[in-house]
Write the structure tokens for this entry.
Amino acid sequence: MSVKRVIWIISEGSPGHVSQAVGLAEALAAQVPATIRQWECRQRKGGLARSFIRRFWMGKHARPLPGWMLRQWLRLERPDRNEPAPDVIIASGGKSVFAARTLATRHGAPLMFLGERKPYQASWFHTTFTPSSFDTEANDVRMDVIPTKITPEAVRLAAAGWSDRPAGRLWTLLIGGSSRSHRYRDSDWEQLAEGMTELSRREGIRWLVTTSRRSGSKLEDRLRGLLPADILADAVWWCRQPEKKLAAYLGAAEKLWVTQDSVSMVTEAAATGKPTFVIYPGDVGFPLTSFMPGYLDNLEKLGLILRLPMNALPEFELQPSAESGRSALTTDALARIARERLGWT
């Protein structure tokens, strides 16, 4: 009789990071019988305080934080004392590391982290699944595609269960917003709207559009004024009225478009295995230490995405190579690596 493992996820609340951790945990549980439990923490201190704690309190050997700090500073949802101890803890996002490392030490559980490891010590983690070429320690495992809950089957089922799904041919657009590396101007959104309208008329399709938390209500109002109503089959204006239709939108569409500022959205689109087009504004500047350029380049080399600037959208012509798409890489391979490193049979 196989032993049922216990997987804990420590979340910092970011939807993208939650999706990554849950994606790996569920893929691992599909290979080895396991129960998944999830807790959230919310850091209240700024960067200087975090740097002090990381370097001088926890240090190289990851000295655990006291209970009062977990409660008051990290605002960690404390697991019940009767909760079965974890066989592994999975975390994603830098703000989850202090709580996850502390709980891993207390329970003697291996800690697996998803994301850029630095500035944390490699010794803090059992395994790091990283998209960054800068993380090169023995326990850093480079991943081509960040884990996600999105799978081809999941989006197919979501679309099939969408009761008021629009008729006709559909394409989907996922919209983020300005970030440190991507700075959008009004002209970028005008070119996007022009291109969407042109593609709709030329290809005989309508759009499913969803914005995100990063978009902001001001941008949503701008886009609603720019996009002709007849080219929209359905839309989620997240900041005005959030609706969880992402999986259904991904499953219902023939082709997927996504703004490049969000690694999570790009990954979710690519994970469907459908032709995915990634669009970016005129003003893009990545920090020298950012993993994003290498990650996006690799996705494009794998044939999972095609990138183009927003100002090219109105004149964009679909090519046969862009029509074909490829099977997306799933999290199953990472789960197999995790299982082997944990010694779970």
About this structure: Residues 5-149+331-342 form a domain with the Rossmann fold fold (CATH 3.40.50.2000). Residues 8 and 322 are 40 Å apart (CA to CA). The first strand starts at residue 5 and ends at 11. The longest helix spans residues 186-203.
